[in-house]
Amino acid sequence: MEANNALYEAVAHLGDNTLILGHRLGEWCGHGPVLEQDIAMTNISLDLIGQARMYLDYAGKLSGEERSEDDMAYRRDVLDFKNALIAEIPNGDYADTIARQFFFDLWHFLFLQQLSKSTDETLNAIAQKSLKEVTYHKRWSSEWVVRLGDGTEESKEKMQRAIDDVWMYTGELFIPTELDASLVESGILPDVRSLKNAWDQEVKAIIDEATLVLPEDDFMQTGGRTGSHTEYLGFILAEMQFLPRAYPDATW
């Protein structure tokens, strides 16, 4: 039972990351700075929500309560969500969104590369499918960091401010929970700590190309994986969950 609980918590975390970040990016639909990028963000949002469906369907089966992917998304409360805090912070302006996506995408790509070797057949399959999509996400957000950072004086200032503001949410991505240890040992999950050096190198290379500077502050916000969230998640869930909670028997 303990092993099942550890796997459930890990899979719920992955599903919540992609669900909440996908919802955040979906808020840009119809509001992007130019039509092409409006569509690009909407497509990335759909990719992430598609990944969330696979993870949350699996988590629902692991829960022992016969939960569906919809139950996992719409009928859990704030404290039950396990997403990293970076996924829930507000969109802000375009530079803020790009900074958030950039840091997450580089981590997500490295994580999925390792997860695609998982001894768990379901996670292995999800990772291999998702990796194709996230390869594009990583390229898209990295290119925009460079374009804004090495662009006009105004775009450079906004991109640097966004990098500085989002930085404190990145450390949590490399902190495992106590439950992860058994999953790492059995080859089900990668050890997120092992991804840090490669992530640091890739981030620095892009930041240097963008003529930006990485923050030196090592203070990091944490707590998402244990259910301690920012105030923003409650507002996301209030909007996302209203309809299925108000009309729980509705069918389409």
- The proportion of residues in beta strands is under 5%
Q: What is the average of the pLDDT values? A: 96
| Whole-number total of structural domains | 1
Distance between the termini: 36 Å
H/E element string? HHHHHHHHH
Enumerate the spans where pLDDT stays under 50 for 5 or more consecutive residues: none
Q: For the record, what CATH class applies?
A: Mainly Alpha
* Discrete helix count: 9
Helicity, in percent? 55-70%
CATH names the topology as Ferritin
E-strand count: 0
| CATH evolutionary superfamily | Ferritin, core subunit, four-helix bundle
Q: What does the largest sheet look like?
A: none
The whole-angstrom Rg is 18 Å
The assigned structural class equals mainly alpha
The CATH architecture assignment turns out to be: Up-down Bundle
Q: Any idea what the shape is?
A: globular
Molecular structure report:
By secondary structure, the chain is mostly helical. It has a single domain, classed as Ferritin, core subunit, four-helix bundle (Ferritin, Up-down Bundle). Helix content is 63%, strand content 0%. The chain contains 9 helices and no strands. It has helices spanning 2-26, 35-62, 69-74, 94-115, 121-149, 153-166, 180-185, 196-209, 232-246. The protein is globular, with a radius of gyration of 18 Å. The model has no long low-confidence stretch (mean pLDDT 96).
